[in-house]
Amino acid sequence: MNSKNNFRLENDALGNIMVPSDAYYGPQTQRAVENFPISGLKLPRSFIKAQGIIKASAATANMELGLLSPDIGKAVIAASEEVIEGKWDNQFVVDVYQAGAGTSQNMNANEVIAYRAQKIAGGSLDIHSNDHVNMSQSTNDTFPSALNIAAVETITEGLLPALARFQQELQKKADQFMPVLKAGRTHLHDGVPMRLGQEFSGFAETIGAVIKQIESNLNDLHQIGLGGNAVGTQINLDPKYPSKAILEVCKRTNAPFRQPVNIFSFMQNMNEPIRCMLTLKELAIHLIKITSDLRLLSSGPRTGLAEILLPPIQPGSTIMPGKVNPAILEMTHMVCCQIIGYEAAVSTAGKASQLEINVMMPLIAHTFLHSIELLTNTTETLVTKCITGIQANTSTCQKWMEESLSLVTGLSPILGYDAASQLGIKADSESKTLKEVLQEKDLLTEEILKAIDPKGMV
Q: 13 with 6: CB under 8 angstroms?
């Protein structure tokens, strides 16, 4: 201790270093804190929880194999379970931008668990962060495994349920709005009539397809390479350890984790996060499209399309009284821009895989897991604050539909494409409706009226 009792003296392979006296971490974590004062960002709760799951599972497997004494093993497991519960999150202090591959993050977990395990054992045991907590492990196999475990949990418990509800609410709106006829639009110009419900059904199916793709990604993420150790050769490892450790992970997560098809491929690359991040980027692109459409359809309310009404959630201007903006849709678009940028970061970091490992794993972990969290929260907010409250403005839908010049499309089979085109051009140039032009030309027969009736076109 120093004279003020604020620090304690510890040492590692590089020598002595002062560690805060109330810290549960040790010298290697302290060096990382001092070496990387970069962003203040830390890896999320889901990743720390996954680290605790791995440490507890490793201790269980090592005890079963007779490699770790029961007294030390039980203390390590108890401390790891406290980490799983989130009791010591404030002791995980390493910046996201740290030493390559996440060695500092792994040692942060090892040191916290070792320190806490000694406390649990009443100080009677000498529990070492590397020899005991990190037994049968390496950063190189545990870090990507922790990332996959964290991703599976956050996708399964957060993102997929949020997307499922989003799809369901869109489908409810599709069913609700199916009787509403409106003008379709292509190139942002008049198109043939359609049902408002058909438009929303397209949104719902788009999200459904993304859900299926994420579920496929989950299957890949269930691969974890525990036992690969430094480069995949299982050095210093009991051959029974990988299956025992992964089985324990399965018990603790209630998820079907399994060994990779090829451990060397698993450790050389970040295949699973890269693939899933591409799907999240696709989701972001679709969300931008859907929310942009909803902004257009709700634009106005007096000078835009105004075919749907959004629930008002807050004042929209500091100068224009009574103005209400599509705030939730704008927020969603912002988040999706961030996700697209995040995917570029993950792809770029994925290129950093060299020989046996990828040293950019901390960046990939932070970016990937934050993307899942952002999309989960955004989707839940989009549904509760916007989608469920959308209403159809049926009178405006009818107005635009009846004024649409694309109704002339119904005349092509009767009059031919060229003659129908001339009628549409004349109506446009003279600012008349199609019916008015047809009446002037004495063409408003029963057959023609039926051909331009929107109900017969949808």
A: no
- Taking the domain 404-456, which CATH number applies? 1.10.40.30
18 three-state secondary structure = strand
Catalytic residue among 3, 124, 187, 429: 187
**What single string gives the DSSP state of each residue in 328-352?**
HHHHHHHHHHHHHHHHHHHHHHHTT
Q: Is the dihedral of CA 288, 294, 295, 296 positive or negative?
A: positive
Q: Report, as an integer, the average pLDDT of 52-58.
A: 98
Q: Is 428 left (phi over 0), alpha (psi -120 to 50) or beta?
A: alpha
Largest interatomic CA distance in the chain: 104
In angstroms, the CA 223 to CA 239 distance is 18
Please state whether the predicted TM-score (pTM) of the whole model is above 0.85: yes
Task: Give me the helix-helix angle, 70-85 and 103-120, nearest 10°.
Answer: 120
pLDDT-derived band of residue 456, with 50, 70 and 90 as boundaries? confident
Q: Which of 92-101, 325-334, 404-413 has the least mean pLDDT?
A: 404-413
For 302-317, write each residue's pLDDT tens digit: 999 999 999 999 999 9
Computed over every residue of the chain, the mean pLDDT equals: 96
Same fold for the pair 7-135 and 404-456: no
| Residue count (the chain) | 458
Dist. CA 312–CA 123, nearest whole Å: 60
Q: For residue 268, which amino acid is it?
A: Q
Question: What's the mean pLDDT in 371-386?
Answer: 98
**Per CATH, which fold does 141-395 belong to?**
Fumarase C; Chain A, domain 2 (1.20.200)
Whole-angstrom Cα distance, residue 72 to residue 75?
Answer: 5
Q: What is the distance between the alpha carbons of residues 372 and 186, in angstroms, rounded to a whole number?
A: 33
Separation CA 213–CA 195 (nearest Å): 28
For the chain, domain boundaries: 7-135, 141-395, 404-456
Residue with tokens 């290697």: 28
Does residue 131 sit in helix, strand or coil?
Answer: helix
- Clarify whether 317 is annotated catalytic: yes
The residue annotated as part of the active site, out of 21, 39, 69, 317, is 317
Facing residues of 149 across strands?
none
Backbone angles phi, psi at 430, to 5 degrees: -100, 5
CATH code of the region 7-135: 1.10.275.10
